[in-house]
Structures are given as structure tokens and as C-alpha cells.
């Protein structure tokens, strides 16, 4: 089997592979044990023989937030069990369909995308198929886009459309050894998608490789990425020390090894302490924008159907009830000031580097049983990734673990609208880490 979407597309164009056969294999994987609980609903896509279309008739999964014509969008929740089928595709889905995607199904998620862990009490929680093959333990795939990551890791989809509000694409990508690219939010359409926090939500994708991430971004953003290779010696990369706290042993070792490889290639790496980063937690009081904006969307339905919500999600949403209009406007103003201060502090760096998440995938059972552990783990998993959403920036995670070990992610990130430079750097970094891994 081809190792990524781009390889499969090459096979289609050269006549070595057939889209119909690849779709049948994806459908079989979607119904396999490895994909248990990964989908809320499967679609019945018809084979598309369009080898020269951007996506070639290959399977792409859709997070159960995006409208797909003829299907309900339920956010992984019983609270939307009465949702009618969508009359039209959301813009992001429409762009994928026009590009030749075979839409294979709506993927499972943390209810309404409100958690970085991926647990779902309504539809079950998909297990991490990558870690299970390594140690046999029932570990989480991360969230909120849990089913999205599992669909790609298991072979049910070549790429997965999801959302990233605080790390919901990058966390599961990191924990399953995949690539997750969170673009600058304004570049991709969010209409026709159940929101969590519109000020932070980003429509984006999980893929097998950085080149696939470039392809999916070009389709979703309806723009061409301008790639440029630069000599390593001309790159200045910052490592915020605050994002290195509380790392487990493997994450720390994998990250330090990646820094050493980049440094050996000639990159200038500096450990930094951006002063505005110390103020990040102050912008999260009472749950921050996620709580405030989700409360605005959910308050009427919560009043009627709270018993149909995941109790942990309802608790987090209801934190937003304490915000006044003045509080909200103050928070938006404080965020604008914080972004300006961060942009000033990060001037001169081509990108920032950090571990995507602070630990490898945790086991599912303790998180399911213990509320205190659940919320503490969720906070830790979101810590590094959520900085980029508040910054309105762009970020990409790619695998940095050694072969045969549990997946860990290296996150490259930058301020708003530096997506093309970041993707260019990610392609170089991926190639460098892979060459070192294979040496």
C-alpha cells in the first residue's frame, strides 16, 4: 500500500492503482475492529474514477461537525439526535467533494469538540490503533478529533477533515504518529460547521505526511501554497522554555533529539522566555473564549436537554454563563493586545519549536473513571497547542519518535499568515528527521 495520499495519487495517475479498489479497502478498514467507535455514521460513497482530480476519488473522512448533504451533523452528541439532514455541504466539504474526495463517513469526537482527550460517552471512545499495536494497552488517540486520527491511522481514510480550537487536530495527530496542520483560521471556511468558539475554531486536516498537508490545505483554502527551501544555516528557531515543563521522559528525549538534529543541520536554535507567554493563563480565566462562546451557542439547548450532554462537557460550557457582555469585550481586547505583544516578542524568528503534547498517549480507563485526573490531563495535553489558537497563528505537528516507540510530536508554529513559510520548513524538517531515523 502507498504510504500516503500523494503516493496513492501517483499510483492512480500512472495506472498502477484503481480508485474503486482503494475505496473498497478503505471501507473495509472503516468497518474493522481497529476502527471501532471511530465513526458516528458511515456514508456509502460511489467509486469515482477521476485519477487526475486533486483527490482522485480516494476516501476522506469528515468530523461530525461539518454539514454533509443528506446527513445530519450531531457533534458526537445525543443532544442533537433530532438534527435534520443537511440540505447542502458545508463549504469545506464542498471543496473536498469538488476535488474528487469520496466522503467515507462522519468521525467521532469529544462531544462538541470540547476536550483534547477524545472520550465520548455516547458513541464510545476509539482506541489508539498505533499504540495498541506496540504495547497492547487501551490508550486514547487524543481529541477532540479522535475518530479523524483513527480513520487515517487505520487506513479507513487517506486524510481527515477536522477542526482545531485548542489543539483538536494536532493532539490526536501527535498521539497517533500523524501530521496535523492548523492553518491561520481565516484562510479556511468555518460555515456549515457546529462551532465551539468561533474566535478560535479552525477548519483543517490530519494527514500521513507534510506534502499531503500542503495538498489538503490548498483544497480547503482554495489557494496555492508557495513553497521555498531555505538553507538550514539561515533559519533562526525559538524554543519557549515554558512549553518544556512537565514533559514525560520519552517526549523530552524525542524533542531534544529533534533539536540536536536540526542544530547539526545548521539551524540556529535559541531557548527563549517571551514575556507575554507568562500572561497566557490569565486569558483562560473562567474557561476563556471557549467557555464564553460555547455558552452563547449551547445555552438554549442546555436548558432543555442537559441530560443528553456529556456531563464533563456541560460543566465546561456552563462556565461561560458567568461572562457579561462587558467581560467578553474586555477579553477580546485583552487578546488583541496579547497577540500584538507576542508578535513583537517573536520577531526575528522563522518559527517556534515545542513538543506538541507533554506526554505520550495515556491509558483510557483511568481517564474514564476519574474526573480530577481527566481535567488535569486535558489541561496538560492542551497547554502547548492552545497557545497557537489564542495567537491566531499557524502550527504543524509531525512525528519525532524513534521507530518502535510510542508516538510523539514535534510542533512547528508561527504567527498569523506565515503558513507557507511554516509548511516549507515542515517539509524540510520532516525530510531531515526521516533521514536520521532511517540512517
Automatic annotation (TrEMBL):
<dbReference type="GO" id="GO:0016740">
    <property type="term" value="F:transferase activity"/>
</dbReference>
<feature type="domain" description="Amidase">
    <location>
        <begin position="47"/>
        <end position="423"/>
    </location>
</feature>
<keyword id="KW-0808">Transferase</keyword>
<dbReference type="InterPro" id="IPR000120">
    <property type="entry name" value="Amidase"/>
</dbReference>
<dbReference type="InterPro" id="IPR036928">
    <property type="entry name" value="AS_sf"/>
</dbReference>
<dbReference type="InterPro" id="IPR020556">
    <property type="entry name" value="Amidase_CS"/>
</dbReference>
<dbReference type="Pfam" id="PF01425">
    <property type="entry name" value="Amidase"/>
</dbReference>
<protein>
    <submittedName>
        <fullName>Amidase/aspartyl-tRNA(Asn)/glutamyl-tRNA(Gln) amidotransferase subunit A</fullName>
    </submittedName>
</protein>
<dbReference type="InterPro" id="IPR023631">
    <property type="entry name" value="Amidase_dom"/>
</dbReference>
Amino acid at each position: 500500500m502507498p504510504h500516503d495520499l500523494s503516493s496513492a495519487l501517483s499510483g492512480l495517475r500512472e495506472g498502477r492503482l484503481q480508485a474503486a479498489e482503494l475505496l473498497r479497502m478503505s471501507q473495509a478498514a472503516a468497518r474493522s475492529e481497529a476502527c471501532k467507535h471511530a465513526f458516528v455514521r458511515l456514508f456509502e460513497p460511489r467509486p469515482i474514477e477521476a485519477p487526475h482530480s486533486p483527490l482522485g476519488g480516494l476516501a476522506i473522512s469528515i468530523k461530525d461537525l461539518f454539514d454533509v448533504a443528506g446527513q445530519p451533523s450531531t457533534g458526537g452528541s445525543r443532544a442533537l439526535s433530532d438534527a435534520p439532514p443537511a440540505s447542502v455541504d458545508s463549504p469545506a466539504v464542498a471543496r473536498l467533494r469538488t476535488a474528487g474526495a469520496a466522503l467515507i463517513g462522519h468521525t467521532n469526537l469529544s462531544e462538541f469538540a470540547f476536550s483534547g482527550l477524545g472520550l465520548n460517552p455516547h458513541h464510545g471512545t476509539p482506541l489508539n490503533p498505533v499504540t495498541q499495536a506496540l504495547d497492547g494497552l487501551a490508550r486514547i488517540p487524543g481529541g477532540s478529533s479522535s475518530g479523524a486520527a483513527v480513520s487515517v491511522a487505520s487506513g479507513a481514510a487517506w486524510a481527515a477533515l477536522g477542526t482545531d480550537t485548542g489543539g483538536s487536530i494536532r493532539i490526536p495527530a501527535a498521539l497517533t504518529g500523524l501530521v496535523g496542520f492548523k492553518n491561520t483560521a481565516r484562510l479556511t471556511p468555518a460555515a456549515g460547521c457546529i462551532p465551539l468558539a468561533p474566535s478560535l475554531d479552525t477548519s483543517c486536516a490530519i494527514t500521513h505526511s507534510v506534502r499531503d498537508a500542503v495538498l489538503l490545505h490548498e483544497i480547503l483554502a482554495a489557494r496555492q501554497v508557495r513553497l521555498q527551501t531555505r538553507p538550514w544555516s539561515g533559519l533562526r528557531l525559538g524554543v519557549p522554555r515554558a512549553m518544556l515543563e512537565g514533559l514525560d521522559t520519552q517526549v523530552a528525549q524525542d524533542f531534544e533529539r529533534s533539536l540536536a538534529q536540526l542544530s547539526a543541520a545548521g539551524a540556529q536554535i535559541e531557548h527563549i522566555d517571551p514575556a507575554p507567554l507568562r500572561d497566557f493563563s490569565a486569558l483562560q480565566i473562567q474557561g476563556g473564549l471557549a467557555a464564553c462562546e460555547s455558552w452563547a451557542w449551547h445555552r438554549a439547548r442546555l436548558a432543555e436537554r442537559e441530560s443528553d450532554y456529556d456531563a464533563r462537557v456541560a460543566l465546561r460550557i456552563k462556565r461561560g454563563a458567568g461572562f457579561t457582555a462587558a467581560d467578553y469585550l474586555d477579553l477580546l481586547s485583552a487578546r488583541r493586545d496579547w497577540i500584538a505583544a507576542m508578535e513583537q516578542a517573536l520577531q526575528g524568528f522563522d518559527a517556534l519549536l515545542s513538543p506538541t503534547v507533554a506526554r505520550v498517549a495515556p491509558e483510557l480507563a483511568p481517564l474514564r473513571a476519574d474526573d480530577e485526573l481527566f481535567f488535569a490531563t486535558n489541561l496538560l495535553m492542551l497547554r502547548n497547542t492552545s497557545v497557537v489558537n489564542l495567537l491566531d497563528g499557524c502550527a504543524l505537528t509531525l512525528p519525532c519518535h524513534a521507530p518502535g516507540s510510542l508516538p510523539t510530536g514535534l510542533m512547528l508554529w508561527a504567527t498569523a499568515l506565515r503558513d507557507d513559510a511554516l509548511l516549507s520548513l515542515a517539509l524540510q524538517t520532516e525530510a531531515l528527521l526521516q533521514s536520521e531515523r532511517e540512517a
